[in-house]
Amino acid sequence: MIVDGSEGSLKKFLADLAPVDQVGADSRAAMLATRSIKTTSKAWAIDMAISMVDLTTLEGADSPGKVKALCSKAVRPDPTDPTVPMVGAICVYNDMVKIARTELNTLGGKDIAVAAVATAFPSGRASLAVKKLDTQDALNAGANEIDMVIDRGAFLSGRVGEVFEEIKIIKQLCGDKAHLKVILETGELVTYDNVRKASYLAMLAGADFIKTSTGKVTPAATAPVVLVMLEAVRDYFILTGNKIGVKPAGGIRTTKDAIKQLVLVNETAGPEWLNPSLFRIGASALLNDLLMQRIKLRTGHYASANYVTMD
């Protein structure tokens, strides 16, 4: 694999990638979605999914109070049951990072990551100078994960060197202080081939995770798209020995949705990726459903929706 970061070498590498069999990807994703899960496996899957949740609030009306409440839920998803695992991360805008980090530390959630959306989220339409400032602001506030968005306009126009360079620079800013999750916004990439190429481009530039979407564009984390991205990280690992994580985000709202994602991971990338260090789920309402299904497994009946805090 000879890629020196130049436009020419990147274009050649991406052009040489095998095209995605769209019909095959659709049918395999549909087939895996029909897999049934036994009760004992379902209990394990629910807890694993909870530990993989990036509990997210990305609204203009976000307030310190809302973020603190979300942090409390991240640390103790079910206050009556200490066996429920903590979530993987809290995902917020830059101005809420310091509040989230302080609150998590106070509540005993120092191991929960604080992810900040950066680089002119969700559009990615800003100068590199602004994107660097945006990222540095999040890092200075205490973010230990950066969710950056690629410039989809540049990618779709064929300016892959420009996209590569931006990711590389943001990764250098992150250094050892933060993991870099690169958002492809797959709903705007049009084809599965573009999803595969963007996945490789991000990984080559230094991404620690590749992420489907901002949650602001539809379609978002469709099963075939996640399948294509999981195939990319699997094949990239075979090629380089480097394990890259995957984060689907947008549209994953129920326990059934989450378990389908775990089946995709296990059957495509492999069981090593069934770990919060290599797979996350960007969501907000999902956690409530996971908790209610967990209670159903434990007690035999559904709790009232009022039992869990509604976000």
TrEMBL record:
Q: What transmembrane ranges does the database entry give?
A: none
Q: In which pathway does it act?
A: Carbohydrate degradation; 2-deoxy-D-ribose 1-phosphate degradation; D-glyceraldehyde 3-phosphate and acetaldehyde from 2-deoxy-alpha-D-ribose 1-phosphate: step 2/2
Protein family:
Belongs to the DeoC/FbaB aldolase family. DeoC type 2 subfamily.
The entry's keywords? Lyase, Schiff base
Its EC number(s): 4.1.2.4
Gene Ontology annotations for the cellular component aspect, listed alphabetically: cytoplasm
SMART domains the UniProt entry points to? DeoC (SM01133)
What PANTHER family does this protein map onto?
Answer: DEOXYRIBOSE-PHOSPHATE ALDOLASE
GO MF term (any one)? deoxyribose-phosphate aldolase activity
- Biological process according to GO: carbohydrate catabolic process; deoxyribonucleotide catabolic process
Q: Which reaction does it catalyse?
A: 2-deoxy-D-ribose 5-phosphate = D-glyceraldehyde 3-phosphate + acetaldehyde
Sorted alphabetically, which InterPro entries does this protein's record hold? Aldolase_TIM, DeoC, DeoC/FbaB/LacD_aldolase
The protein's name in its UniProt record: deoxyribose-phosphate aldolase
